[in-house]
Predict the structure of DUF2116 family Zn-ribbon domain-containing protein.
Amino acid sequence: MRTCLECSEKIVGREDKKFCSDNCRNAYNNKINKDSTNFMRNVNNKLRKNYRILAELNTDGKSKATRDKLLSKGFDFEYFTNILQTKTGNTYYFLYDQGYRSLDNDYFMLVKKEI
């Protein structure tokens, strides 16, 4: 007898079915995918916010913005997902596919990586 991974009720239907209903499937997946600590939740929220800010300011795939403009929208320079060092020595900081690098006079080059 097969039982639901979420509520342990008997499962009727296909052999490979793991849940008795969509509600149980959603509840189970929400439980295992939720951020386990406040620290994780806070970091993920900052990454999402930084990503939204870059995407909003960089609609054309390549643009410039000032430090003040980024900071006024709430951008936090301490949170990014990866760093790219180019052959020419430029350092880009990325939030997934949205990136930036420092230019002169407190300007930043915003770029979008083609995926």
Notes: Residues 38-57 form the longest helix (20 residues). Helices lie at 22-33, 38-57, 67-72.
